[in-house]
Each structure stands twice: as C-alpha cells, then as structure tokens.
C-alpha cells in the first residue's frame, strides 16, 4: 500500500525536476508531505520549484543534489550523496531526459541519448538498490512511446520500433553509433533500453517488494518538444503546443504509477499513459537484457 497520504515524511527522488513534468511531479509529492530529492546539473534552475514548495501549506521539503546525469561521474557522485544522507527511498522517478538534433558524445565517449535517456535511470536504480529495498520502493521510468514506433507520421504501414543489434549490447559505445545515425531513433532506442533493463530488474527485485514500471506520459507541451518541432513549423510553436497535453496532464500517469494503492503489486510493465501496453519482442528477451545489464554494470564498476 502506498497512496499519496502515505508519502508524508518519506524520501522520494525525482530527476529532471527543474522544469516540465518533473517539476509538477515533485510539487505534487511535496504537497503530500514528502521529502523530495532532485538531481540538477544547475541547482539554481530548481529555484522556482524551491519557492513553490516553500509556499505550500504542507510539510513537504526539497533537497537539490548537484549533478550532471549525462556523465558516469555525475551519476555516481549524485547517488553517493543520496546514500550518505538517506537510509531508504520510497519512490524513484527517473524522469530526466533530453533529445539531441545530432550525434554527440558524452565525456565518457557514449552517445548522448544513451547517456541521458538510459544510463541515469539504470545507474539510479542499481546504485541505490539497497535504499530502494529498505523503502520497498516504487520506481517509475519515464520513457516515450517512440520505443514502439519511430515513425513521425503514422498514417500508413506498420509500427517501426528502433532496431537494436544484439551484439552492440555488449559495448555501450557501439549503441547509437554515428553510422546511419537518426536522432529520433537514437532517442527511441535509449528509451527502449530503459524498459528492457527495467523488466529484468523488476523480475529480480520483486521478492524485495520493489516495483519497476515504465510510462509514456503522452505528447506534452514542455521544452523537449521544442527541439522536436521541425524548423519550418517553429513559427507555429505556440499553436502546436496548444494541441498537446499540459505538463500537469502529462505528469498524472507517472503520479498514478508512483502512488495508486491498486498498483502496489504491478511490476515490470509499460504503460501508455494508463494503458498497460506490450513493447517490442527484444525488450522481453532475457539474454539481451542480461547483455545490456552486464555492459551497463561494467560502466558503473
Ligand atoms: N514532452 C513530451 O511530449 C514527452 C513525451 C514522451 C516522453 N517524455 C519524457 O518525459 C521526461 C520529462 O521530459 P519533459 O517533457 O518534462 O521535458 P523537459 O521540460 O525538457 O524536462 C527535462 C528535464 O530533464 C533534465 N535534464 C536533462 N538533461 C539532464 C542532465 N544531463 N542532467 C540532469 N538533468 C537533466 C532537465 O534539466 P535542465 O534544467 O538542466 O535542462 C529537465 O529538468 C523525459 O524523460 C522525456 O523524454 C516527454
């Protein structure tokens, strides 16, 4: 049983809470009296959230841990800080994410979508596993339905999930390589990896009372969308944004997975908003999951 009232005084972690849906999710948890921890590459960008939480009538609090989640060092340092300060974690929302218009490498030599849209979620789950276990935590990974279909226009033909070459799972630097790089597919591939690793960890940790689910929040008017709008349509940005969900509407699906008592035993699932939805076959393949986990663990060792 979790329920929103039960978060009072508990530690919940929300990455990417400086804006967009993350800020709404963090604010809602604080409204329920939680101690919200976020990781931000520029802590001053959490000032608005800080002020909003301070003005709430409840007892919710905010702690900002400085950290750039696109680097191994940033993920390791952030999780070390969290471990030193907190014994147990009740909820972890891996929400931080980004889309890049071209091929870029992180300081670890890893393509940026893998570095931002997959590795932080994996690192937060595995490096904080003892604290998650003590809190019998719910983990929600915010992904994108591009992991089922990378077509931008879906009028004709069938869904086109991102391709994953199984042999590339052994070496993170081979994922989203520069040859044949397509930004939207690279983003989708990183989200699919997050789901894949989540399924495997969910199975392994179910007996400890940890649940791990993934969610597509809908198409939501946030900063990430501006990067995705083609240049020719940018003058219509305000109009286009009006056709999308608000950050509050988008955040609702994540909040439900994190708190709804009816979902307390639900784990290892992917939801398109509120609908339990199957993902591409490779995501369920235990051998592929294992190869991905081994190469990811090697990075954090
Ligand atoms: N909007 C949509 O339609 C949509 C659809 C499907 C999935 N999603 C997913 O929803 C999640 C939330 O995105 P959003 O739509 O709310 O977009 P957003 O407003 O751009 O928020 C992204 C958040 O991630 C943080 N972030 C990015 N790179 C980071 C890094 N290297 N280290 C630490 N934090 C970093 C950003 O912090 P800074 O302040 O430092 O930039 C920001 O707080 C993402 O995972 C996204 O992929 C969004």
Note the main sheet.
8 strands, mixed
Give the strand order, joined by hyphens, for the main sheet.
3-2-1-4-5-6-7-8
Hetero groups = NADP nicotinamide-adenine-dinucleotide phosphate
The mean pLDDT is 95
Tell me the distance between the termini: 34 Å
| CA-based shape | globular
Overall structural class, as computed from helix and strand content, comes to alpha/beta
Quick one: CATH class?
Alpha Beta
How many separate helices?
11
Cα-based radius of gyration, to the nearest Å = 18 Å
The name CATH uses for the topology is: Rossmann fold
Q: In terms of quaternary structure, what is this? A: single chain
Please trace the helix and strand order, writing H or E for each element: EHEHEHEHHHEHEHHHEEH
- Which ranges are low-confidence, i.e. pLDDT below 50, for 5 or more consecutive residues? none
Sequence-ordered SSE layout with sheet pairings:
Blueprint: E1 11-14, H1 20-31, E2 35-40, H2 47-54, E3 61-66, H3 72-85, E4 91-94, H4 112-117, H5 119-127, H6 129-134, E5 138-142, H7 183-205, E6 211-216, H8 223-228, H9 237-242, H10 247-259, E7 269-272, E8 275-276, H11 286-300
Parallel strand pairs: 1-2, 1-4, 2-3, 4-5, 5-6, 6-7
Antiparallel strand pairs: 7-8
Helix pairs in contact: 1-10, 3-5, 7-11
Describe this structure in words.
This protein has 301 residues and is of the alpha/beta class. It has a single domain (4-300), classed as NAD(P)-binding Rossmann-like Domain (Rossmann fold, 3-Layer(aba) Sandwich). It has eleven helices and eight strands. Strands 3-2-1-4-5-6-7-8 form an eight-stranded mixed beta sheet, with helices on both faces. Strand 2 (35-40), helix 2 and strand 3 form a beta-alpha-beta unit. It is globular and about 50 Å long. NADP nicotinamide-adenine-dinucleotide phosphate (NAP) is lined by residues 16, 18-22, 39-42, 45, 68-70, 95-98, 116, 142, 144, 216-217, 219-220, 222-225.
């Amino acid at each position: 049983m979790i329920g929103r009232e039960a978060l009072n005084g508990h530690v919940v972690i929300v990455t990417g809470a400086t804006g967009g849906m993350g800020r709404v999710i963090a604010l809602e948890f604080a409204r329920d009296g939680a101690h919200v921890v976020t990781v931000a590459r520029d802590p001053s960008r959490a000032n608005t959230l800080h002020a909003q939480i301070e003005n709430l009538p409840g007892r919710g609090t905010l702690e900002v841990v400085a950290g750039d989640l696109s680097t191994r060092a940033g993920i390791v340092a952030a999780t070390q800080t969290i471990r030193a300060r907190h014994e147990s974690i009740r909820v972890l929302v891996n929400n931080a994410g980004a889309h890049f218009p071209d091929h870029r490498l992180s300081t670890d030599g890893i393509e940026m979508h893998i570095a931002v849209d997959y590795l932080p979620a994996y690192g937060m789950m595995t490096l904080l596993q003892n604290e998650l276990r003590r809190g019998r935590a719910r983990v929600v990974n915010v992904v994108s339905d591009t992991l089922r279909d990378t077509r931008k226009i879906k009028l004709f033909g069938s869904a086109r999930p991102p391709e994953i070459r199984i042999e590339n799972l052994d070496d993170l630097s081979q994922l989203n390589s520069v040859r044949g790089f397509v930004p939207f597919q690279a983003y989708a591939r990183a989200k699919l990896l997050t789901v894949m690793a989540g399924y495997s960890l969910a199975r392994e940790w179910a007996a400890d009372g940890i649940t791990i689910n993934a969610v597509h929040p809908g198409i939501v008017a946030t900063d990430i969308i501006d990067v995705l709008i083609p240049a020719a349509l940018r003058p219509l940005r305000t109009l286009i944004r009006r056709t999308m969900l608000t950050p509050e509407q988008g955040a609702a699906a994540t909040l439900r997975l994190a708190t709804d008592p009816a979902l307390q035993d639900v784990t290892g699932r992917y939801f398109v908003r509120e609908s339990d939805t199957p993902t591409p076959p490779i995501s369920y393949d235990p051998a592929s999951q294992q190869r991905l986990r081994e190469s990811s663990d090697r990075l954090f060792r």
